[in-house]
Target: DinB family protein
Amino acid sequence: MKNLRLSKKFSVVFFFTLVLNSQAQDMELPYYQIPEYPEDFGPGNVVARMIDALGFRYYWATEGLTEKDLDYSPSEGARTSKETLKHIHTMSKMILNAADGNPNIRLENPPELSFEEVRKSTLGNIKLASDKIRGKQAEEFEQCNVVFQNGDRESVYPYWNMINGMLSDCMYHTGQIVLLRRITGNPKNPKVSVFSGRLRD
Model:
């Protein structure tokens, strides 16, 4: 009987240790909350704030997703949540590449990443892109082109296309994840305030 009580106590302690470790790992990722305001409304700061807004929304849209959530598709032929997250991940790399004007080169056989790896990499790309864009002046955006490279062929677009293209598209698809997880019975944390960029008390 004594051994049984000890075993139960150990199980409870082990469970809470796992939960706390999981929460600690989540808080190590960027965008648990949105960063503080930039010093001014300069063009680089405004764009960086838009990127940060994506990061905050994505963090909480993807926090606590289960395999059931990831495998869900609203209809035959539609993307699953997991496939949508891979799509966002690809675009997050494009957002990062545009900050330096680096070309986007499609890989023939991209590595297969787990959900945790996709989430961590996406948030990392968003954070790096924001850091690179923050503080830029208007004339510096002339170097932040969206470049697609296919062999010797190159297509170049101004940063305007990034704003109405990949950046807005990532916001759109992040909203889809929020909707789909609600359908599967696992809504995002109700304390999330996208207005304040914090969790409500």
Remarks:
- Helices lie at 2-28, 43-62, 67-71, 81-100, 115-133, 159-183.
- The first helix runs from residue 2 to 28.
- The beta strands are 103-105, 146-150, 153-157, 192-193, 198-199.
- Confidence is low (pLDDT under 50) at residues 10-25.
